[in-house]
Amino acid sequence: MGSNKSNYNNNSDRNQIKVVTGDAGYVLQDVPHLCDYIPDLPTYPNPLQDNPAYSVVKQYFVNADDTVTQKIVVHKKSPRGIHFRRAGPRQRVYFESDEVHACIVTCGGLCPGLNTVIREIVCGLYYMYGVKRILGIDGGYRGFYARNTIPLNPKTVNDIHKRGGTILGTSRGGHDTSKIVDSIQDRGINQVYIIGGDGTQRGASVIFEEIKRRGLKVAVAGIPKTIDNDIPVIDKSFGFDSAVEEAQRAINAAHVEACSIENGIGVVKLMGRYSGFIAMYATLASRDVDCCLIPESPFYLEGPGGLFEYIEKRLKENGHMVLVIAEGAGQELLSESIHSMEKEDASGNKLLKDVGLWISQRIKDHFAKKNKMAINLKYIDPTYMIRAIPSNASDNVYCTLLAQSAVHGAMAGYTGFTVGPVNGRHSYIPFYRINEKQNNVVITDRMWARLLSSTNQPSFLSTNDVIEDKREDEPQVLDQEIFSEDNKN
Ligand SMILES: Nc1ncnc2c1ncn2[C@@H]1O[C@H](COP(=O)(O)OP(=O)(O)OP(=O)(O)O)[C@@H](O)[C@H]1O
Ligand SMILES: O=P(O)(O)OC[C@H]1O[C@](O)(CO)[C@@H](O)[C@@H]1O
Ligand SMILES: [Mg+2]
Is residue 273 part of an annotated ligand binding site? Predict the structure, then answer.
């Protein structure tokens, strides 16, 4: 790595950030290692070198210096930018097989693929590293201190990937850091696999900090989960594709209903609390959708350029229309018309008002008031159906890679990391990068422009809004063509 120098940047938000810099603006945002706070840890040869499945694979082990670049669109003079440590098996490991006592926990909302990740962590530990002691934590974070554990082995998890949900159960709230770490310590657990969304990864980060503070030889690995795809840095989250695919069934039904009746309007509400990725991708995939509304793109109903005007135009042109709306869209409009107390779930996430019912009623009222067009509106709410399904084939493969990468990382002594693909290469990403912000649809990026040109819907933006927005340009993670935030310099 040339003239690299390694250092820890101390600052209150980014406690002990491990950064390695190199030539030509190379920056490695490294992940912590058990050796950082426990000196003289012994290492062992990786048991995979004797495994017939792997010993024939040339260069199976990842080179210690391999890193993955966050910036793939470059110019002649652009600096090399931010890199992450490449995921994969290392030549030497920091745990002996019979020393490992692992646990797996799933937290937050459901997502297709949770059971596949659980299965592959268990099978990866068992078959690749000969680990026999693996516990499931029942019911999310609070299960560490309030429930019994579930013993896991390849037999008990054999066919769970064919089922939706999580065999371990999940929950929101109940993150009591010291009780959780007490439980880890009391049970002699030394590898913790934490599967969950943005809140879960923040919880994993504080668990890691407490484990480090206590000086425990315990590796903490996060596996990012959310169908909302709101986790930054990684290309996309597992289960997202399956959810988008399932959403097609609801959109198809809305289209069939709308097409079959005069002035038919099909309204479909999809998940997406703060990020409209599911609605955007489901719309782009379907081509039957005339309008897609997401939290990131404010819209208005009345007047020129508004939603009602557009619906009327589409009905006159086409005789029917399909509207897809993300659950977090237009919440500010609902707040004006529905007076309700702000409420939060057990994790502190804001509880949303039902935008699907609200918009359906507003559309009906509008056309009834005008009395010149009789409409037939059908509202479909497949909310939980798109996340309670088993993962599709490509998500299953993705989940396997995530699980195995997490296992390789923990065995190699890395800790305090989330695993995930960055430009297609699986990487170990420090928690602070995952937790620093949320991934959102950027409406000034090309992907949203593609959607607008596919549906022909109004952008609901004035020229001033566009200029304003462009100044705050943000990365579009799912769009490989767009610069990431770190590419903007
Ligand atoms: N800042 C935080 N610090 C510690 N724990 C947290 C934090 N935020 C959330 N958690 C815990 O993480 C768990 C999951 O959080 P949350 O319910 O927000 O779901 P999530 O992981 O964001 O998943 P999703 O939003 O995809 O459903 C909960 O047990 C919650 O208490
Ligand atoms: O009703 P629950 O289980 O709290 O989950 C709802 C939320 O979970 C998600 O699926 C993931 O965060 C959101 O899209 C949705 O708002
Ligand atoms: Mg969340």
Answer: yes
Ligand-binding annotation for 197, yes or no, is yes
- Judged by its nearest atom, the ligand closest to the C-alpha of residue 143 is 1
Residue 113 CB–ligand 1 contact under 6 Å:
no
Identify whether the C-beta of residue 140 lies closer than 8 Å to the C-beta of residue 183.
no
d(CA 312, CA 410): 57
User: Is the Cβ–Cβ distance between 193 and 223 less than 8 Å?
Assistant: yes
Known active-site residue 228: yes
Q: What pTM does this model have?
A: 0.92
The predicted complex's ipTM stands at 0.98
Extended beta strands in 107-175, E state = 133-137, 149-151
To the question of whether residue 90 is assigned a binding role by annotation, the answer is no
Q: How far apart are the C-alpha atoms of 59 and 57, rounded to whole Å?
A: 6
d(CA 48, CA 412): 12
CB contact at 8 A, 276 and 328: yes
**What's the CA-to-centroid distance between 109 and ligand 2, angstroms?**
5
CA of 328 to the centre of ligand 3 (A): 13
SS3 233: coil
Q: Which domains does the chain have, with CATH numbers?
A: 5-237+391-435 (3.40.50.450), 241-389 (3.40.50.460)
**Which residue has the least CA distance to atom 5 on ligand 2?**
109
> What b/e sequence results for 362-371 when a residue is b if at least 16 CB atoms lie within 10 Å of its CB, and e otherwise?
bbeebbeeee
Total residues belonging to the chain: 489
Query: Does residue 445 sit in helix, strand or coil?
Result: coil
Give one DSSP letter per residue of 156-193, joined into a string: TTTTGGGSSS-TT---SS---HHHHHHHHHHHT--EEE
Q: How does pLDDT run across 178-194, given as a tens digit for each residue?
A: 999 999 999 999 999 99
pLDDT over threshold 80, residue 371: no
